[in-house]
Design goal:
Alpha-D-Glucose-1,6-Bisphosphate, Chain A, domain 4, elongated, alpha+beta, seven-stranded antiparallel β-sheet, 35% strand
Length: 178
Amino acid sequence: MLKKIAIGLLAVVAIVLGLATTKPNEFAVTRTITIKAPPDKIMPLIADFHNWAQWSYWETLDPKMVRTFEGPASGKGAVYGWKGDSKVGQGRMEVVEVQPASALIKLDFKDPVESNNMTEFTLTPEGDATKVTWNMKGPMPFISKIMAVFVDMDKMIGPDFEKGLAGMKAAAEKAPQV
């Protein structure tokens, strides 16, 4: 009987490992929203980490979260660090590049799981509105591939992006338009 259980467990492990090998080497999560504001009213919400409290969903999860800011106030080289409870963990973001219609941010998580990802915001004018696309990509080491057999990154993080973009829309649309 124990032999059959052991063989069954080994088979399950082999199947999970086999499925993990079929997962991609990189993950990507993308969400888009249309905001009734021009790109130059939206980009400051992204390129200045001091403004993330106005719209980022994660900013609301831990009221005691410790935030640090380094480098320039906004734009290339601006750095935002945070340390919070288990809901927000610990990490660091740095603006790597800012253009009028895009921003590239390096995102390094230290806790709960160490990872290094890139986030890009793209702003596409559409008449009197702007289509904002938020994309995050990162490597999928084998342990992440095993986790991906059970948990889909897009389904796990995507709803948080949607909440953040809804917050960005509210913040940008209430801001006075010039």
